[in-house]
Design goal:
Number of domains: 2
CATH architecture of the largest domain: Roll
Oligomer: single chain
Structural class: alpha/beta
Radius of gyration: 19 Å
Number of helices: 5
Number of strands: 8
Helix content: 25-40%
């Protein structure tokens, strides 16, 4: 097993966009994959549906229904399928969205939670049941502040929030 460490001396080579990454999230939808991809690609910039394949006669779903697809959301590739109701999403796996401004947090929070459920500490579930965390990019730095009392205040403030407020966290 090779382990590569990036110590800031030489930048890693950008991934070859013509080959699949080593690890790519795979999402299992009941029967609404196409709707979900259209929803997600409408929210995130630099996003595109790349490929779709369809069920044919004799498949578990109606002929012409999207069977599987690949799509790209602002730097992240995904594979997905319409697999039926055998499996569903769980909050134990979520998509983490780093936001640099409160406007980004507000926008992603409202758009992704539409028809879904808002929860605590920046978590939400979208209308397809997929969990997301909408967080300030500097949250980790704030929660692990060199002053342990500051870090504890940040945690206390965050635990009382649903949608995260960058300024309130920084002021804690």
């Amino acid at each position: 097993m090779k382990i590569r460490l990036y110590l800031g001396k030489a930048k890693p080579k950008p991934p070859n966009t013509h080959t699949m990454k080593k690890i790519t999230p795979f999402l299992w939808f009941d029967n609404n994959l196409e709707e979900a991809m259209n929803f997600y690609t409408s929210i995130f910039q630099n996003s595109v549906i790349q490929n779709m394949s369809y069920y044919s006669e004799g498949g578990p779903m109606k002929k012409g229904t999207v069977m599987s697809a690949s799509f790209h959301l602002d730097g992240q590739d995904f594979l997905a399928m319409n697999g039926g109701p055998a499996f569903s999403f769980t909050p134990a796996v979520s998509l983490f969205v780093n936001c640099h401004t409160q406007e980004e947090i507000d926008e992603f929070w409202e758009k992704l939670s539409a028809g879904g459920e808002k929860s605590r500490c920046g978590w939400l579930k979208d209308k397809f049941g997929l969990s997301w965390q909408i967080v300030p990019a500097d949250l980790g730095k704030l929660l692990h502040h060199k002053d342990p009392e500051k870090a504890a205040r940040v945690m206390t403030v965050m635990m009382k929030m649903d949608k995260l407020n960058i300024q309130a966290l920084r002021d804690a």
